[in-house]
Amino acid sequence: MKIAKFAFGLICLAILASNIVTMSRWSEARGVYDDICYLRQAHLFQRLGIGGLNTNAALDYDHYFEGKLKEIAFAEWQDPIRWPCHNPMPSGKIVMQYPPGTGFLLALFPEGHQVVPLYVAASLIVCGLALSGIAMARTLPSVFGAGLFGALAIYLMINPAKASYSVAPTMALCAVAGFLTALWLTRDKRSALLIALIGVLLGASVNFRLPNALLAAGYFIYLGIAFLKVRTPSAFVQGLGLGLGVLVGMAPTLVAQAVNAGSPLATTYGSADVVAPAFDFAVFGHYLRDMQFVLIVLAIGSAAWLLRVGEGRVRQVAIVVAGNLIVNLVFFLSHPIFTPYYIVPIAMLSLWSVSFAWLMKPAQAQQAAALRREPASLGVPSR
Q1: I need a surface site. Which of 26, 93, 174, 379 has the fewest CB within 10 A?
Q2: CA-CA distance, 321 to 184, in Å (whole number)?
Q3: What is the pTM of this model?
C-alpha cells in the first residue's frame, strides 16, 4: 500500500509540474474581455488600495484600461459606455460587473506577472489536499480512489480552470471547504466555529463569482431541517454560525455593490446578463458534450454511493452534498446559458466533500475499535 501511495503521489506531483510549465507560457493578453477586466480591477487595487472597490470608468485617468483595449484591438476603446464587462448604473457611473475577489488576488502579484502566480498558488493548494487525501487512505481501494481523484483535480486546474481567472481560486476554495465539510460532519461533536469557518469560505467564493452563493444552499437546507427536528440551542447556533460566516465572507462584494451600484443588494450586471430560467435542450446538449457532464456524473454517483454505503456521521456528508447538488443543478441547467465552468464549482465541492468523508471513516473505525479494546487491556471486562 505504501508503494501505491508513493506512486500516486508522484503522479500528482508530475501533473502539477506539467501544469506549472504550461502555465508559465500563458499570456496575459490573449484577447479575452474577462481577462483584461479582472486585470483592471487588480490595477485599481494596486493604485488605490481599498479604493479599488470603486470600479467607475472615470478612474481610468491613467488610461490603463484603454491601453489594454488597444492591445486586443478593441475598436471602441475611447467610449466607456462600450467597454466590455462594464455597465451603466442609475447614478450615471459606468462600473465593472464582476465582484472584486479575483482582481484582489491578482493585485497581490506584480503587474505584468499576475495570472501565472495566481494559478500556481491555487494549484499548490489543490495538490496539497490531493496528497493529504492519499496519505489519509487506509485501504488499497481508497488509495486508488484518492489518487485518481487527486490527479483529476490537479489536471482540472488547466482545463477548464483556464476559461476564467475566477475559476482557479474557486477550485482551491472548494477543495478546502470540502475537507472542512467532511471534518465538521464526521466529528463526534460538531463545532460551531468550524461551520462558521466553512460559511466564511463559501461566502468568500461569492467574491469570485456571484452564482457561487448557491454553494451554501445545501448547508442551509441541512441545518434548517436539523433545527426544525430537534429545536435545540446548539442546532440554532450552528445555523447562525453558518449564516454569519457567509455574510462575513461575502462582505467585500456587498461593499463593492454598495459603492458601484448604490446598494449592497443591487447588482452591477446589466439587464442583458440577467437571464430568466428556461429549460433549453440545446444548452443541455452542450453540457452533455462537455467535461462538466463527466464531473456531474461523478458528483451524483459519489453522493448516491455514500448515501447507500455510508453510516452514521459519514452519511450526513452525502445528505448535505445531495441537497447542494439538487439546488445548483436545477439552477444552472434551467438557465439557457452555457459556459465551460458554470457547474465545475459545485461538482468539485461535492467530490472533495465525499472523498474526505470516506477517507475519514477508517480512522474513526480504528479509534472506536481501540476504545472497545481499552477496558480489556486494563483488566475491566468489556460489554
Answers
A1: 379
A2: 13
A3: 0.90
